[in-house]
Amino acid sequence: MIEGLDKVLEGRDQPGLTEVRALLQRLLDGHEAEGRLIEEQTLQPRASRVFRLRFVINGQTRQLIVKRLRPEIGRSSADRQASETGNRSAQRIGRETLAARGGHE
């Protein structure tokens, strides 16, 4: 169990929190992980769309950047990042989140 995961982005009026929290749980090693949220920081305060989340998971610090984007922008951003870095995880995560919200490919 990850302590504090159920409070991530609480009170920030962000859509899709249930889906984001479920995806974070999966990214952080699922229900077998032991840990806690240690920091939540707004990186883009004016628009409240980019956040840094830091966790201690199974004794190791892990950091994730969460961006809230319109679906069409999120898809193109994830596709661009995947082609530039060869890392398809952002692309996959964006598509999974969009699908969970009932979006279209």
- Mean of all residue-level pLDDT scores: 76
What oligomeric state do these chains adopt?
single chain
Q: Write down the Rg.
A: 14 Å
Number of helices: 3
State the end-to-end CA separation: 32 Å
Domain unit count: 2
3D architecture notes:
This protein has 105 residues and is of the alpha+beta class. 36% of the residues lie in helices and 25% in strands. The protein folds into two domains: 1-68, no CATH class; 70-105. The protein has helices spanning 17-27, 71-85, 89-100; strands at residues 2-3, 35-42, 50-57, 60-67. A four-stranded mixed β-sheet has the order 1-2-3-4, with no helix packed on it. Helix 2 runs antiparallel to helix 3 (89-100). It is globular, with a radius of gyration of 14 Å.
Furnish the topology, listing elements before pairings.
Layout lengths: L1 E2 L13 H11 L7 E8 L7 E8 L2 E8 L3 H15 L3 H12 L5
Helix pairs in contact: 2-3
Q: Could you provide a short overview of the structure?
A:
With 105 residues, this protein is α+β, with helices and mostly antiparallel strands. It folds into two domains: 1-68, no CATH class; 70-105. Helices cover 36% and strands 25% of the residues.
Observed structural traits:
4-stranded mixed β-sheet; globular; 105 residues; 25% strand; 3 helices; alpha+beta; 4 strands
